[in-house]
Amino acid sequence: MDLRHIVAASSLAFAASASSAIDFEGATMTPVRVPAEASTGLEAIYVAPDTRGLTMVYTAKSPQSTVKWYRFSNLGGAYAEELTPTKSGTRVSIQAQPSDMGYIIEEGLDRTCYWLVNYSEHWLDMQSLDIAPEQDCDRAALTFTGSAAEIPYYTINGRRLVLSRELEIEYTTLAFNEDSYSYLPYPAEETIASVGHEIHVPAPLCDTSFKLSGDRFLRAWGQEQSIESPTFTSRSVIAETKATQTVRDVDNEQKDSSTDGLGGSAPCEISFEAAVSDAAIFTEWQISRNPDFGIPDNTFNELSFDYTFTTQGNTYVRFVANNAEGTCEFVGPTYQIFIGESKLEIPNAFSPEASPGVNDLWKVSYKSLVSYECHIFNRWGTELFSSTDPAEGWDGRHGGKFVPAGVYFYVIKARGADGIDYEKAGDINIIKYDGGNTTRPTE
Fold first, then answer.
1. Which of 71, 107, 249, 315 has its CA 20 to 30 A from that of 300?
2. Residue 168, Cβ neighbours under 10 Å: how many?
3. How confident is the model at residue 121 (pLDDT cuts 50, 70, 90)?
């Protein structure tokens, strides 16, 4: 059969049509089998400690079967060379080549293709692992001394691929914990296919050492190697931030329909909190009326603080942090707080004692008042009620007793978050109901 003609006719000609097992004899340790992707045309990649003196054995379906055996290099199956196997009954064997090589076994219409790696030509040698002199904020750089180069293999079409050594590098970093709202130690692990002179991993968020171990083949043979680095000093800065607004459940405070997020009616109280990684030495909350934070209006160095917003319009808040050298900076998300314009509406009548819960309190309707002072008098100038809280109402009592129906007078001074000053004075009519008949206010 013309093997080159088959490959030229179809790139899938050597895809394994049957999963035929290959046995190995003469190996000091059992070769490691790595399944191959279907697109490679290979059934598997085998890694033997040493292919010298290694015998590959295929079991035919019957003693009468004709079994052909081929080998191919990095050129692919199109340039495969036929070999002369040794056959005894159903046992068909051949000596492995001393270097990495691909093999094809053909029995009737069934073909098995695989690649055999001589690991002795790629032996792992770990000597030292050190901290590289140059570091950046996002990736940690380590220098490796030894040999852990790529292990290449080739598909049936001659495409070069790399077999991962699955080297493991372990270290400690930090992970954010929502329950404690802090960063806590967390074990991290990266899998590395091969190593050149340097290793790069995500920068740890705390001081730690790195342990490199492997590879997967030595691990399978009980000969895993490992080395450890000196202590790495963390420089990466990261933070979590949150803003929590105090919600007032006040029935006479008007809601600002234009605000879906933070803010609304002043005074608006918001608690800000940040959690930072270990390298964050300089921390600052910034408050600005300008979204670019050119020159902040206020700054706070504490990780958490409370702030009351009393100015109409947008105010912006963000958290920034730096490491000791100022080389790694974290800039958090910007919180936008919108305070709406002020309003003050004053009722002129109410009916205490009449229907509990229905118009039995005199209250202003308001929004975004940052100062407020209210006084209520009777016709003789006696002060019956005073308050500095617009959410507070008058129940029509003085000295613990309801005052008579009639006309009373209020004087209100207030200031809005938008700078508007309110100076209001007017009448309050107390209306009482008796058996459904209205008692008119006394003059």
1. 249
2. 18
3. very high
Cβ 434 vs Cβ 427: under 8 Å: no
* Cα(147)–Cα(195) distance, integer angstroms: 8
Confidence of residue 434 (pLDDT cuts 50, 70, 90): low
Select from 385, 365, 367 the least CA-distant residue to 430. 385
Q: How far is it, in rounded angstroms, from Cα 274 to Cα 237?
A: 13
Phi-psi region of 263 (alpha: psi -120 to 50; beta: other; left: phi over 0): left
The residue among 437 and 136 whose pLDDT is bigger is 136
- Token code pair at residue 154: 């080739």
User: Is-contact 330 237, C-beta < 8 A?
Assistant: yes
Tell me which residue has tokens 């991993």: 201
Q: How far apart are CA 209 and CA 129, in angstroms?
A: 10
Q: CA quadruple 209, 193, 152, 218: dihedral positive or negative?
A: positive
Fill in the amino acid letter for 232: F
Maximum pairwise Cα distance, the chain: 128
pTM for this prediction: 0.80
**Cα R_g (the chain), whole angstroms:** 41
Q: Rounded distance, CA 220 to CA 22, Å?
A: 19
Amino acid at 320: V
Q: What percent of the chain has pLDDT over 90?
A: 87
- How many CA atoms, within 13 angstroms, populate the side-chain half-sphere of residue 384? 24
Considering the chain, what is the average pLDDT of its residues? 91
The span from the CA of 357 to the CA of 63, in Å, is: 101
Tell me the three-class secondary structure of the chain, residue by residue: CCHHHHHHHCCCCCCCCCCCCEEEECCCCCCEEEECCHHHCCCEEEEECCCCCCEEEEECCCCCCCEEEEEECCCCHHHCEEECCEEECCEEEEECCCCCEEEEEEECCEEEEEEEEEHHHCCCEEEEEEECCCCCCCEEEEEEEEEECCEEEECCCCCEEEECCCEEEEEEEEEEECCCCEEEEEEEEEEECCECCEEEEECCCCCECCEEEECHHHHHCCCCEEEECCCECCCCCCEEEEEEECCCCCCCECCCCCCCCEEECCCEEEEEEEEECCCCCEEEEEEECCCCCCCCCEEECCCEEEEEECCCEEEEEEEEEECCCCCCEEECCCEEEEECCCEEECCCEECCCCCCCCCCCECCEEECEEEEEEEEECCCCCEEEEECCCCCCECCEECCEECCCEEEEEEEEEEECCCCEEEEEEEEEECEEECCEEECCCC
- pLDDT at residue 438 in the model: 44
